[in-house]
Amino acid sequence: MKNYFKTLFDKYFTDKLTVEERTINIVILAGSISAFFSLITRIFMNADPILLLILTGMFVSALSALVIFNKMKKFNLLALIACIAVSCILMPLAYFFMGGINGSMNTYFVFSLLMVIVMLKGWQRILLAIMTIIIDVGAYLIEYFKIWVPKDTYHGVEFLRIIDQLQPFLIVTLCISIILIYQKKMMNDQYNSLKTLVIDLQEAKEQALKSSLAKTSFLANMSHEIRTPMNAIIGMTEIGNSSDNSERKDYAFEKIRDASSHLLGVINDILDFSKIEANKMQLNYEKIRFEGLLHKVANVINVKMEDKQQNFEVFIDQNIPVFVMTDEQRLSQVLTNLLSNANKFTPFNGKISLNATLLNLDKEECTIKIEVIDSGIGIAEEQKDKIFLVFEQAEEFTTKKYGGTGLGLAIAKRIIEHMGGTITVDSVLDKGSTFTITLKMKIAQGQQTYKLSQDINWKNIKVLGIGLDENSKTYFDFLVSEYNLAFEHTNSGSQATQLINHHPYDVYFIDWDVADIDSLELVNIINSKQDNPPMVVFLRAKDWTGLEDKARNLEIKQYLIKPIFPSDIVNLLNISLDVKQVVIESKETTLTIPDLSNKCLLCAEDIDINREILQALLLETKVNIDFAYDGKIALEMFKENPQKYDLIFMDIQMPVMDGYTATRAIRNLPLKEAKEIPIVAMSANVMREDVQKSLASGMNDHVGKPIDIKQVINALNKYLN
Question: How far is CA 53 from the centre of its chain?
Answer without folding.
Answer: 70
